[in-house]
Amino acid sequence: MTYLVPLPVVMPLLGAALTLLLLGRPHAQRWVSLTVLTATVAVSATLLVQSSLHGPLVVEVGGWVAPMGIVLVADQLAALMLVVSASVTLCVLVYSIGQGMADGHEETPLSVYHPTYLVLTAGVCNAFLSGDLFNLYVGFEILLVASYVLLTLGSTENRIRAGTTYVVVSLLSSVIFLIAIGLVYASTGTLNLAQLVDRLDTLPDDLRLLLQGMLLLAFGIKAAVFPLSAWLPDSYPTAPAPVTAVFAGLLTKVGVYAIIRTETLLFPGGRTATLLLVTAVLTMVVGILGAVAQSDIKRLLSFTLISHIGYMLFGVGLTSSLGLSAAIFYVVHHITIQTTLFLAAGLVERRGGSTALDRLGGLARLSPVLAVLFFVPALNLAGIPPFSGFLGKLGLIQAGVDDGGVLAWILVAGGLITSLLTLYAIARVWNLAFWRTPHADMPSGDDAEQAARTDGAMEPDRGGSGQSGAVLPKLMIAPTLALVVLGLALTVVAGPLFDLSTDAADDLLRRTPYVDAVFPGGAP
């Protein structure tokens, strides 16, 4: 089954090339994109099953033997990330197609949307499967190029400004990452992750700490951890709703994945554990305080996104099997729930004409379906029992209590405070946007539809469709509902998912399954 390993990268790239050849044929582009992402979900699920049964699956690209060639490795962690990310990107694609069709456009507004979206998917999958540092860097660069195009769709002033900030920050992290790669190669003579396991252990402690710190800095910027997260709230909310959703759900988690992979495989022993724990509590608390102060739903969700990255760092910083497995579980949960909430925010913008809380009201009565689509994942994000958010936080708290250290107890307290403030922020959104009397300036009918097209639609307005903003498009409702159901399913299958996360965490901490899969006869 190793022949399946490259497909999550190859299929989206081939799909991107095909959709470029189909410029001017939007229906064909849509079907190609849907087919490719559906196949990617199926392949990713197969890889997850196979890696769970038989251990990591390895492919030496082009037949070049490791460590000379590029190696792709699908272990349980990588395969799990592939399944979740592919499922999310498929749902967001359906949402964006539904949004364009609801606006009455028979032509794709920017013919590069589908190719760019598929390239973004390929970049995410490549990052998860990369078996060497330089290929991981390539994955991040693919993400950067594709995400900049998607972020600036429509070429509005706000989007260009936000895109510029995003690119500058991303390039800075990429330069730091590239310098770290150069230093690693100069110190060890290799960039293959499995080969680095032994070679890094022979380096002087100070040099290892320098390399570890530079990689953490690069990945910390990409993951938007405090104090490296100031760029995110100004960048994500300006993009169209589907773009914001996929960015919020996936891009920062690629940075978190890189932290998990390098901290466990390359730099075991917890030398940066204190730094990670301090960063985790600051990210949680500062992020949620920023969310509480917001008066716009998209910006509020952007700050909660930053805040909950702290929970993942909490688990990594504990350096225990329970902490790491809870962190992996929470990554899966957060990708799903955060994406769902941003899609729901796009529906709020379409129905209410804005995401500003002082311009909304009465949505629970005006659109009960929308109210449910927001309410359920919002409770999940806040960690209300018995949802997966509660179970993930419970696992992290248990890991912190088992650790028993002072910093661990501070993280436990910080996690509880963050969860309560998240509930407060979500309750405030519900009260102002859904529960109170509709605001006098809140548009309705065609006014709401026109406002949604102008402010957040994927496609620029080319004339009214005659649709009422009071009726939300089914192709936007359906993928949002699918993600809500997926979030609920995480609760139903929490036991098996925690078992899978524990197995993945144990393999990461032991390191030998990964190394033996790449070098069956031992690393050279």
Would you mind describing this structure in some detail?
This protein has one domain (2-517). α2 (26-54) runs antiparallel to α3, α7 packs across α21 (512-518) and α16 runs antiparallel to α17 (406-435). The relative contact order is 0.11. The radius of gyration is 22 Å and the shape is globular. The protein is built from 21 helices and two strands. It has 524 residues and is an all-alpha fold. Helix content is 74%, strand content 2%. A two-stranded antiparallel ribbon has the order 1-2. Residues 445-469 have low confidence and may be disordered. It has helices at residues 7-21, 26-54, 76-102, 113-129, 133-151, 157-188, 193-201, 205-223, 232-235, 241-265, 273-292, 297-318, 321-352, 363-366, 368-382, 388-403, 406-435, 446-456, 474-492, 494-510, 512-518, and strands at 57-60, 71-74.
Task: List strands and helices in order, with pairings.
Elements: H1 7-21, H2 26-54, E1 57-60, E2 71-74, H3 76-102, H4 113-129, H5 133-151, H6 157-188, H7 193-201, H8 205-223, H9 232-235, H10 241-265, H11 273-292, H12 297-318, H13 321-352, H14 363-366, H15 368-382, H16 388-403, H17 406-435, H18 446-456, H19 474-492, H20 494-510, H21 512-518
Antiparallel strand pairs: 1-2
